[in-house]
Design brief:
The protein is built from 17 helices and 14 strands. The protein is of the alpha/beta class.
């Protein structure tokens, strides 16, 4: 691809007080690769206004608006979170990109506002489907009560579906999402697959000294299989299922649960729900890990476990595969697009006994683990590339921009 005057603005929708989600991380990675070939920048809702160049990508941070901000100490956090709005219309009018690319649909009202601004300014927008599977399957993902479903439909699903219908193109992360988008009313000629890639950092071998420090820091065993989970400690990610499976396993394995813990109360509830104690020798909670530590954990683990109830196309699964680790995950969302029978095992969501049986099988068979790990590394190399995804995205941007110019 050659240099191009095409100007693209990618916008990550997320409350400014939240840490970056997988959708935001994937959006930044894609835009960083796009920026190598055209004028591209990434906009984030943030607590401050700034512009910085990060690994070659111009990252623009803008403070959003929130009508409930002053009363936030008195209101439920979820309500306040839902009311953040990006307030970017004037900035977009001044910047005049050829195409806007939307990433991440939370809060849905913020996503809808940006889409409306683009329509008013006659700037075409495309949207990637980060979080669409979770939003489409909200009730099962969060064990929501039936009385919540009409509220969810009115304030979450409908805004997201409306934005998708009005998009110039919808960039699905996997073909598995086609029925969801068609049910939202998106025409098939507006659907494309632009999948996630993997940060090459995770394919680089960790020095043995760094792994040794990691093992010592978290007191990891050297003579027992290590099961690794990486993700948010939210109910939809299935940590409770992993903990219950651990109590059913025959093999003497250790489960390492990486990721920041949201609260001690929630942590205690997870353990109690599985009948485990905080100092159980079969469990290690790392809390927040650095990128270096995460790479070392991947390369130390024997099996990667991801028993999510709903996920679009989790980056952590691809990172584990790129690290040569076999995967045991659930048959939900785009995970079957990632994990094939030669790279891992898929189970039904919530089946902790089935999870335990598959973990026992892999823990007892090092040769099978090596074969699956090697196949996973090869699959990621062949199928999940940020360079290839950026090239396809740029082709879509050009097509959309040309269509708009042709109508003018």
């Amino acid at each position: 691809m050659s240099a191009s005057p095409l100007r693209v603005v990618a916008i990550g929708i997320t409350p400014p007080v939240f840490k970056a989600s997988g959708g935001i991380s994937a959006g930044i990675q894609l835009t960083r690769h796009v920026a190598r070939h055209c004028d591209a920048r990434f906009v984030l809702m943030s607590t401050e206004d700034s512009e910085t160049r990060e690994d070659g990508l111009l990252v623009v941070r803008r403070r959003p608006a929130n009508m409930l901000r002053r009363a936030s100490p008195l209101l439920p956090a979820k309500l306040v979170s839902a009311m953040w709005r990006p307030a970017l219309k004037a900035w977009l009018a001044a910047t005049r990109p050829a195409v806007v690319h939307l990433h991440n649909p939370h809060p849905p009202g913020a996503l809808a506002e940006i889409a409306e601004d683009c329509i008013a300014l006659r700037i075409p927008y495309v949207i990637s489907t980060h979080g669409f599977v979770e939003f489409n399957d909200y009730a099962s993902a969060s064990n929501g009560s039936s009385w919540r479903r009409p509220i969810y439909d009115r304030f979450i699903r409908r805004p997201v579906a409306g934005v998708a219908r009005n998009a110039a193109r919808v960039l699905m992360l996997s073909p598995e999402e086609t029925p969801i988008l068609r049910a939202m009313g998106v025409q098939p000629d507006r659907l494309d697959v632009v999948t996630n890639g993997v940060d090459r950092y995770f394919t680089e071998t960790v020095p043995s000294a760094d792994r040794a420090r990691l093992i010592e820091r978290f007191n990891l065993p050297r003579d027992r299989p290590i099961l690794l989970f990486v993700g948010n400690h939210t109910p939809n990610k299935g940590i409770g299922v992993l903990l219950r499976a651990l109590t059913q396993m025959q093999e003497n394995a250790v489960a390492v649960v990486a990721g920041a813990m949201r609260s001690q109360k929630e942590h205690a509830a997870l353990l109690e729900g599985a009948g485990l104690q905080a100092r159980d020798p079969r469990l290690v909670f790392t809390d927040f890990t650095t990128k270096d530590e995460l790479r070392a954990l991947y390369q130390t683990a024997d099996v990667f476990v991801f028993p999510s109830f709903a996920d679009t196309l989790p980056l952590v699964v691809l990172e584990a595969m790129a690290s040569g680790v076999p995967v045991v995950a659930t048959r939900v969302g785009g995970i079957p697009f990632e994990v094939t029978p030669d790279t891992g095992v898929l189970i039904e969501a919530g089946d902790y006994r089935g999870l335990a049986a598959q973990l026992d099988r892999l823990c007892a068979d090092p040769a099978l683990r090596r074969a699956m790990g090697n196949a996973g590394r090869n699959r990621v190399h062949d199928q999940f590339s940020w360079d290839a995804s950026a090239e396809k995205a740029i082709g879509i941007y050009r097509s959309v921009a040309q269509q708009v110019q042709g109508r003018c």
